[in-house]
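Appendix B, example 12.
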Amino acid sequence: MLLSEQITPTDINKSLKLLLMSVNNKKEAKASSDHHESDVHDNELRQLNDTIQAVRKEKQIRHSTQSLESDIKGILTDFMKSVFEQILELKYELKENVRKTSAQIEELKDITCGLKKHHSLCCNDISSKMQDVAEESESVKKQMSVLNEELLKRWQSFTDSIKTQLSAIIDHKKENHHSLQSQTTNQLPSNVNRETSLRETSLHADLSANTVPSPASIEPRRTLIIIDSILKGIQKLGLMYAPVLDTLLTVFSRI
């Protein structure tokens, strides 16, 4: 490489020109001695031989350099081919991935659109059902209010009728009781009056002796003798504890 940089083809041409000029000069200058010409001719031949050897070496170096460059170019070409093939494969794989991704995205878009439609339909259905339920509940409320009013009116009328009936029954019972009492006072037999008078005298004697009668001593005196015509008008709950009701047959006396 250093030799190729020092000796160039122009230098070779210059040396050849100088050689030819020297030959011409030799032909023209024949006056010099033969010994001097031979020395000069030998020197020129030696220089020419050195120049030829240098040119050969330069050619060899250039050939080796060209072969090395061709080898490097081949290696680089093969590397670039492999890189280009790998780039093409990566590009194809990238295209396939992009295609698959786009297909999946489209599928997801379709699914989301379907879900949105289904959601909107469900919301509309639910809203309509809620509206129906609200209307039905409102109608039920109105019906219940009407029924409550009717029931209250019926209950009020029922209670009023019961009150009137009870008042009428009570009045009727009072009238019957008064009439029966007036009849019994006029129609009681003499033995009933005698027994009641005996009981009153015995009770008066007990009270005068300052003795408090025990429940056992009072219990046989709880018998009330009445006639059967006024038994229905006497309430058993209004009497003393565990009374015993004895009835007599009704006696009608003509006055």
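The CA atoms of residues 175 and 227 lie 18 Å apart. Confidence is low (pLDDT under 50) at residues 1-5, 207-223, 250-255.
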